[in-house]
Amino acid sequence: MRLMRYQIAFLFLIGLTPKLFSQPMLYYNGQIYTSDTNNLNISYFVVNNGVIIETGDAISAERIAEFQKSENLMGKTIIPGFIDSHIHFIDGALGLNQVNLVDVKDSVTLKQRILETLGSSSDGVYVARDLSSYALLGVSNPLKYLDYISPEFPVIIFLKSGHAAIANSAGMNILGFNEKTKIADGHLGLDETDKLNGWLMEAAAMEALKNIGEEYKYKTLENAILRGQELALSYGITTIGDNTFSPYNMKIYQSMQREGKLKLRIWTRSYGRIPQTTNLMGPMGLKKLGFIGPQNDFNRVHYHLSKLFTDMSLSIPTEITGNIEPGGEVYLSKNEIENYLLLNPETTFAFHVQGKKGLHNIIDALTDLGSRNNNRRHVIDHAGYCTEKQLEQLHNLGVSVTILASQTFDYPSLIKEYSNNNVSLIEDDLLNVRKKIKILHGALTSDFPYGMDTSFVQYPSNDGLNPLSNMAINITGMFPDGSEINGFANKTISVSEAIQSYTTNGAFVLGEDNFLGKISKGYAADFIILNQKIPFTNPMELYNMEVLQTYIGGEKVYDRFNPLEPFQVDEAITPYDYTVSPLFGYDPTVGFIFGAAGFVFPLKIPSNYGNIQIMASSNGNFNIQGVFKRFELFKNIEFKLPVTASNFVQYYYGESDTTNSSNYKVLFSDRILIRPEFTLSLSDGFQTSLFGDFRYLNKTNLKDKQGNQLIERLMPNETSLGVGMGLSYDTRDNPISTKLGFYGAAQYVNVSGIGQTNNINSNLIMVDFRYFNYIYNSKFVLATRFSAGALFGNSGYMFRYTLGGAERLRGYYTNRFRGDLFYSAQAEFRFPLYKKFSGVCFIDEGDISEKSLDKTLVTFGGGVRFSINSNVVLRLDYGIAKDQNGVFFTFGEAF
Question: If exposure means fewest CB atoms within 10 Å of the residue's CB, which of 198, 449, 502, 663 is most exposed?
Answer without folding.
Answer: 663
